[in-house]
Design goal:
Largest sheet: 2 strands, antiparallel
Distance between the termini: 14 Å
Radius of gyration: 25 Å
Structural class: mainly alpha
Helix content: 55-70%
Order of helices and strands: HHHHHEEHHHHEEHHEEEHHEHHH
Strand order of the largest sheet: 1-2
Oligomer: single chain
Strand content: under 5%
Number of helices: 16
Length: 568
């Protein structure tokens, strides 16, 4: 019996496909390689993306609207491709191999992007009048960007879950460490982002784009090396089959039995008699009273048996039905994150364009690039994460009686309010900036004598909102996702960032088309001193407020999942 406790009881195996030995695999000795991988990968990603809007303007000669839309479209794609990586990981290959394969694609993209900024023939020719890129140079640049978008699709949804796999959920001591892992994981992201938004952006604007993209490329190669270095220490979860197939089985079975009545006695619904679920890597879920139409898939009738075997397209277990219900219940909460992500995306577009018009000097000789101010968002996250964990949570716990201080939904809601305030603050600053321009007739001045550091409060507020909403979403989607669909649900939560970027593109396009009619310059012209960026911020603030009001209704309606058993 003592020998049983030498091995993880969550079904994980080692690199030789043997049961994972607790003392030889997993835990922090394996996670340090995963955290190193994530830190370097995020440094590479943010080092390339934070200042991308300026690269497209300067080297590809794109205007404000075009560059902004290209950045948000590309960034959105980076958060859609995780659906591909998550599905392949959960269904067929496992998280390790998906991270490994897609990391190599990522490296190819980073190398090609560096070449477009440094190799003669691939980088545009520039003179004192600007740059003149050829069509082929633009194509190669965007090919590199979208290879990176594909590469990040295999890493984003898998790496946090793969790290969590290193701790046995059936071991109380390891289960506590798993919660701590997510804190360190989020910290590693922001350490990489901090270096990227400060040092690398400065290098890009003052040394050159070749070095500015080359260093992130090297960081990505280091990330891959770090990941592979820990291979012998990792624990691996075997893929459990296609979650999409299980979802469609419930849909088909419930449609076939749409004429049947669901019994009031839930014990009459079909479920396996074993203590564990028949879905690999998943606990049994307790029947819920919502979305009862799908319960028809678990109503057993005579024709469900074919040659003595149960057809999964005719009869599904209660746990399988509850998997689908869990996903459906997550969708409204998921949708409420889209507007928040639209606000978040402004840091890499409108905040940068706003900062480009302001005095960027810090002292007489040092000039800080406008994109580098995103480091205040990162510093805000690094500041507020421990403050929340050590101070806010303890105070909230006294008043709410909840072990986490706030429920996950309450935490997300607080972040939505803070994001609305961030847009109001950004709008107020733009009103002040434009009034300053009018008073002094600075319409055609490239940099007005108003310090860029007036932007710090809006960055800091977005960072604070991020701690509440993004970390709250990470925790919420992990807890509420079906056990065998956690990679897919992680990817689903990331798509809010994608759709937020796409919505930002749509809003900018609509605003530009509407406000430039009859020869008007519009809200977001190339000369921001003659525009009305403040109107765009007010629009986002109103949308954020409406989104929060809808979210309040959604959070009252939500039903949390309940499990009836444990693995192992």
């Amino acid at each position: 019996m003592a020998e049983d406790y030498m091995y993880a009881r969550d079904g994980t195996v080692d690199s030789h496909n043997h049961p994972a030995h607790k003392n030889k695999t997993g835990k922090w000795k394996a996670c340090r390689f995963i955290l190193g991988n994530e830190c370097c990968e995020r440094l590479a990603y943010y080092g390339m993306s934070t200042n991308l809007v300026n690269y497209l303007q300067i080297r590809l000669n794109q205007g404000n609207v075009t560059a902004s839309n290209n950045v948000t479209n590309w960034s959105g794609t980076c958060y859609i491709t995780p659906l591909i990586g998550a599905f392949l990981a959960d269904a067929y290959f496992g998280r390790y191999w998906i991270i490994a394969i897609f990391s190599i694609v990522y490296c190819v993209g980073m190398t090609l992007l560096t070449m477009t900024a440094s190799v003669e023939g691939l980088n545009p020719s520039c003179d004192e009048n600007g740059c003149d890129p050829t069509k082929s140079q633009v194509v190669v640049c965007f090919l590199a960007l979208y290879l990176i978008a594909l590469g990040t699709g295999g890493i984003k949804p898998c790496v946090s879950s793969f790290g969590a796999d290193q701790f046995d959920a059936n071991d109380e001591a390891e289960r506590k460490k798993k919660s701590s892992f997510f804190n360190w994981f989020y910290l590693s992201i922001n350490v990489g982002a901090l270096v990227a938004s400060s040092v690398l952006v400065w290098i890009q604007m003052n040394v050159g784009w070749g070095w500015g993209f080359g260093i992130p490329a090297v960081a990505m190669f280091i990330a891959v090396g770090s990941f592979f270095s820990g291979s012998r220490l990792y624990r691996f979860q075997k893929p459990g089959g296609s979650p999409i197939t299980r979802i469609f089985q419930v849909l088909v079975a419930s449609m076939r039995k749409s004429h049947l009545k669901v019994p009031d006695d839930k014990t009459l619904l079909y479920e396996t008699t074993d203590a564990e679920s028949n879905i690999k890597g998943s606990c049994k879920l307790e029947h819920s009273k919502t979305l009862r139409f799908f319960d028809k898939a678990a109503v057993e009738v005579e024709g469900d048996h074919v040659h003595g075997l149960i057809s999964p397209w005719k009869l599904c277990t209660v746990t399988q039905v509850e998997e689908l219900k869990s996903i459906v219940r997550l969708l409204p909460v998921w949708a409420s994150g889209i507007i928040f992500s639209t606000v978040y995306s402004q840091m890499s577009t409108m905040f940068v364009l706003q900062g480009n018009t302001m005095d960027q000097h810090m002292g007489p000789n040092f000039k800080i690039p406008s994109a580098s101010l995103s480091l205040f968002d990162t510093l805000s996250v690094i500041f507020w994460t421990p403050v929340y964990d050590q101070i806010i949570l303890r105070i909230a716990r006294k008043y709410t009686g909840h072990e986490r201080g706030f429920t996950q939904l309450q935490r997300i809601g607080i972040g939505l309010v803070l994001s609305t305030i961030a847009m109001i603050v950004a709008g107020i600053l733009e009103v002040i900036r434009l009034n300053y321009v009018r008073r002094h007739n600075y319409y055609d001045l490239e940099y007005i004598p108003m310090s860029i550091f007036w932007q710090v409060p809006q960055y800091f507020l977005v960072g604070c909102a991020e701690v509440f909403t993004f970390i709250g979403q990470l925790e919420f989607f992990y807890d509420q996702a079906p056990d065998a669909m956690r990679s897919l649900c992680s990817a689903l939560s990331l798509t809010t960032v994608a759709l937020g970027n796409y919505l930002s593109t749509l809003l900018v396009t609509i605003v530009n088309n509407v406000t430039t009619r009859n020869g008007n310059l519009g809200w977001i012209p190339d000369n921001m001193n003659r525009g009305h960026l403040d109107y765009f911020y007010w629009l986002l603030a109103i949308l954020s407020l409406l989104n929060f009001l809808v979210y309040l209704w959604i959070s009252k309606w939500y039903t949390y999942k309940k499990i009836t058993g444990y693995l192992g």
